C-alpha cells in the first residue's frame, strides 16, 4: 500500500512534506512549508485518493497532523487533492426534510458551541456574517460597522419603523438599527446561547424598550404584515432547498405592502445547489453545518419572486467575505491557546480548517455571498423606492 502511495505521488512538485507514523519523511518538492503527519497507517489508502473531505476528516479525528501556517495548509491541501483526483463538482444535492426539531438541533450544534470562543475572533459586536469593506483598508470592527450601516441604508430604515431580524444571532444588527436608525426591532433565533448574550447586551445598552429578541422558528412568524422592513442575515443557508418557498412566503407575509425585505446569505456556485467539489462541501456538512444547503442565486430569486416579492437589487460580496474570513482565521490562529481552554480539541481543529478553508473558497469563487433586496408591491403593483442607489453612498 505504501508503494502505491509513493507511485501516486511521483512527479508531484509541491512544497509539502509527508511524515509517516514511523518517522520516515518524504518531500514532494524543495523547501517544504507544510508537513502532513500520518499518525495512522490506515491513512495510506486514503492518501492515494485525497478528497478534501477525507483529508479534513482525518485531521479532525486525529489521524493526520498538520504543521505550518493554516492558510498554506489549505492551499497545499487543495493543490494535492487537485493533482491526484482532479476537478469536479460535488454530488447531486440532497433534498432533506427540515423539521423544526432537526433545524433547532443543527443550529445548537454550530452556534451554541461557546459564546466566549466566538468572542475570541469576532469583532466587538460579535457579528458572525460577511463584513463590508468600503476601501479595503478597514479593520474588522470598522468593516462590520460598515456592513450593518450598509444593510440599514439598503432597507431605508426610518425612525419609528418596525424591523424584523430573522436569525438575529447575538443581536448586533438589531442593536445597531435601534441605536443608529431609531427603529423598533424584533429579532428571532434558534440558538439559546446567542439569545442569552444578545438579551444581556440589549439590557446593558439600555435598549430593552426598542429591541426584543426571542427564541422562535421562522415558520412561526406572524403572517399579518405587521413589520415595515424585514432583514435576514446568514439564515437561509439553514433552511434547506425543500423549505425555501415556505421561507420566502413567511418573509412576504411578515412585511407590509410597500415594505422591504433584505436577504443576505451564502449562495452556491452551481445552479442546482450541489456542494463544492472534491469533498469540501461534504466536510462542511459533516463537521460544521449539519443539514446546511446553499441555493444558487437564481433559485433564491425565483423563490422570492414566487412568494410575491419583487427583487429590486442584488449585490455580490464574495471578495468581502473572503477578507472577513481571513480576519477571523488570523484572529483565531493568534489565540489558539485561549481557544483550547474553551472548546474541545476536535472542535478547535474543525474551526481552524473551516475558517481558513472558507476564506480560500470565497477567494477562489467556489461559493458566493449575495445581498438580495426585494419589495412587497403595493396593491397597484407600485413601490416607493428611489430611482437610483445614490442615497446608499451619501
UniProtKB/TrEMBL annotation:
GO annotation, biological process: lipid biosynthetic process; methylation
Identification of the protein by name: Methyltransferase domain-containing protein
Xref: PANTHER family: CYCLOPROPANE-FATTY-ACYL-PHOSPHOLIPID SYNTHASE (PTHR43667:SF1)
InterPro entries in UniProt: CFA/CMAS, CfaB-like, CMAS, DUF7884, MeTfrase_dom, SAM-dependent_MTases_sf
Protein family (similarity comment): Belongs to the CFA/CMAS family.
Active site: 358
Keywords tagged on the record: Lipid metabolism, Methyltransferase, S-adenosyl-L-methionine, Transferase
Domain spans labelled Polyketide synthase-like methyltransferase: 121-377
Superkingdom in the source lineage: Bacteria
SMART domains: PKS_MT
Pfam families xref list: CMAS (PF02353), DUF7884 (PF25371)
GO molecular function: methyltransferase activity
